[in-house]
Design brief:
This protein is α/β, with parallel strands linked by helices. The chain has two domains: 181 residues, 3-Layer(aba) Sandwich (Rossmann fold); 153 residues, Glycogen Phosphorylase B (Rossmann fold, 3-Layer(aba) Sandwich), CATH 3.40.50. It has 14 helices and 13 strands. The strands form two sheets. The protein has a seven-stranded parallel beta sheet, sandwiched between helices. It has a six-stranded parallel beta sheet with strand order 10-9-8-11-12-13, with helices on both faces. Helix 3 packs across helix 5 and helix 7 crosses helix 12. The longest helix has 18 residues. It is globular and about 60 Å long. It comes from Nonomuraea spiralis. This is Glycosyltransferase. Its EC number is 2.4.-.-.
């Protein structure tokens, strides 16, 4: 079969992009024809797959610089691409993409609209109204957790809601020894990730001074976060690592004893799944059904003191880290790529019926 994944920007560092490229490679390796399309060109492209078996396309220019003529040309290129493919499944990875492709899909395409956020996040933004308006007309509306699919089905009256979780890109044979005094934070250094809260929680945690917080990622908040670490008195223990290539992240998890996630909102964070697969326990704010399905130690959203208390417990007990790490790895089995690809192929078969 033919599958076309479309993102606003397919090559920026981000969770939607990572999941899209992982699924594209997995389906291509199963013999399907797969395309990944970016509606906009990434300012700084990030490579997720070293040797892609799928085809990649960019139909537009840089985001934020699009005039009416540029958009019409990009829409024409998108329509021509879909016309050349002929038929298959169009997987639209966000409400913005669903809106953009409305009217561009040829008759031979089945439409699948993903939402990578939670119901609670959608309810607090324009996303919920857009999903209510546009997703019922799709062949399938796809969410990351049973909790969120149920909420959209009940409160947004979606008759076509179902669940397929994010996948793990690879299953590691080796797990962390959990003996390096290091907490790992992974993500874009942007406001929504609230690394300021993570730095504060780390500073307040009761732990030996040998422990460090390593932040992997880059973004506009970097210097502000450096200053925040200095104000919290932990500038010498917070290490800003910058971007790390996807294929090198294995070593980062193997050299971590904890992973921490303090985002304002999340769908199903891949970092929690990857940490679990490497036997690394995690602490996260309880912001979505996807976070709950990943199984971290959960803390009420925004409660920095409670987060610090959980960090203190785990930083102070190797035995508790090993117990939670083993349970996390067992839970992560459900998110192995082959299992998730099976669910995608079952979804395609369901749509055909």
């Amino acid at each position: 079969m033919t599958v076309v994944f479309t993102c606003l920007d397919a090559d920026t560092l981000g969770g939607i992009q990572q999941v899209t490229h992982t699924l594209a490679q997995g389906l291509a390796e199963r013999g399907h024809e797969v395309h990944v399309v970016g509606l906009y060109r990434a300012a700084t492209p990030f490579r997720y797959v070293e040797r892609p078996r799928y085809r990649q396309h960019v139909v537009g220019g840089p985001a934020g610089r699009e005039g009416a003529l540029t958009r019409r040309l990009a829409d024409r290129r998108m329509k021509d691409l879909l016309g050349a493919v002929g038929s298959g499944y169009a997987v639209m990875t966000s409400p913005s993409v669903v809106i953009r492709l409305s009217g561009l899909l040829p008759a031979g395409f089945r439409s699948i609209g993903q939402y990578h956020g939670s119901y609670d996040h959608a309810r607090g933004s324009w996303h919920l109204g857009s999903i209510k308006k546009h997703y019922p007309d799709l062949d399938q509306a796809l969410f990351l957790s049973e909790d969120d699919a149920w909420s959209f089905s009940e409160h947004a009256l979606l008759p076509n809601a179902c669940t397929v979780p994010n996948p793990l890109g690879a299953w590691p044979e080796e797990t962390s020894a959990l003996d390096v005094p290091r907490v790992l934070g992974v993500g874009r250094l942007e406001g929504v990730k609230r690394f300021d809260r993570l730095i504060s929680a780390f500073a307040r945690a009761d732990a030996p001074p040998s422990w460090e917080l390593h932040l992997i990622g880059d973004g506009l908040e970097r210097e502000r976060l450096r200053a925040h670490a200095a104000r919290e008195g932990v500038a010498d223990r917070v290490v800003f690592r910058g971007l790390v290539p996807a294929h090198l992240m294995r070593e980062e998890y193997l050299n971590a004893s904890l992973v921490a996630l303090t985002s304002e909102h999340e769908g199903l964070p891949v970092v929690l799944l990857e940490a679990s697969a490497h036997g690394v326990p995690s602490v996260a704010f309880d912001v979505s059904g996807g976070v709950r399905s990943a199984g971290p130690v959960r803390v009420p959203p925004g409660d920095v003191d409670a987060f610090a208390a959980e960090l203190s417990v785990l930083m102070g007990s190797a035995r508790e880290r090993r117990r939670l790490g083993a349970a996390a790895r067992a839970r992560a089995e459900a998110f192995r790529l082959d299992h998730v690809l099976d669910r995608w192929e079952s979804l395609f078969a369901h749509i055909e019926r």
